[in-house]
Amino acid sequence: MLETNDLRLFDEVAREGSFTAAAELLGYTQSAVSRRVAALERAAGGPLFVRLARGVRLTPAGEALRRHAVAVLDRLDRAQEELAAIHRGSGGTLRVGAFATANVSMVPQALKTFGERHPGVEVRLTEGLSGRLLDRLDAGALDVAVVSDYPAGLPSAAQTVLLLEERLLVALPSGHRLAGREVIDLRDLAEETWIEAAPRGQPTILTAACARAGFTPRGGLRVAEWTGKFGYVAAGLGVTLVPELAAGAVPGDLVVRPISEEGPRRKVYAALPEVPLPSALALVGILGQ
């Protein structure tokens, strides 16, 4: 078997054309280089050098081996450089997952700053529901996931870092009877139809908040995407919760109002694998600023 160290020594001898010169550069004795070259020739099945009165030159077999040795050593050197960059957090690929409303502004702004600070890292982004992102993280398909506990908690034991806690606002049609209020009491929404993403009957942050306010929210249409929810609210078919992160994306024909103190809140986390990449930790630091 041809060993990497032997290939490096072989390449140095070929470059210098001398066992003695290669020995001086590598810090070996001339006899040690001769022994290792002889062992390499036995492993290669025949002579690799023609011994001359002054120095050596490659045989045809030596020329062939050197072409392959140079390619192998170059690939190994590049692999070491890439690994070093990954461990420094300055290279490699960072696979990021984020739920939809985090992609309105929070994640894009963080990735912009991250790209300025770590230009050698290639970022790949996946959007999805928090539960699915955590499954992908657990499966090793993501390096960091931005997730929330809305609507039904955080269904994973992943290592998490709390990024923020935000209010959930209510989106109403512009002509709604409560649209003129600065703050809305959740109890005043007891007769409203709620447009949600969670399956009917599943406990959510909304149902918990409404229970504290003394009523059960009236379920309506189930719509997963925020843009779809806005369309149904605009049509007067119900009201919906809007995270503060997404408030800037609400269409102009709707109004968004904060809910009084008993209103629902959610937490946003960065989830990481047990052994996170340095680049993932760097991004989490930016997200948490």
From TrEMBL:
Residues 2-59 form the HTH lysR-type domain. Pfam families: HTH_1 (PF00126), LysR_substrate (PF03466). SUPFAM superfamilies: Periplasmic binding protein-like II, Winged helix' DNA-binding domain. Keywords: DNA-binding, Transcription, Transcription regulation. InterPro entries: LysR_HTH_N, LysR_subst-bd, WH-like_DNA-bd_sf, WH_DNA-bd_sf. The keyword DNA-binding applies. PANTHER family: LYSR SUBSTRATE-BINDING (PTHR30346:SF29), TRANSCRIPTIONAL DUAL REGULATOR HCAR-RELATED (PTHR30346). Belongs to the LysR transcriptional regulatory family. This is LysR family transcriptional regulator. It comes from Nonomuraea mangrovi. The lineage of its organism: Bacteria, Bacillati, Actinomycetota, Actinomycetes, Streptosporangiales.
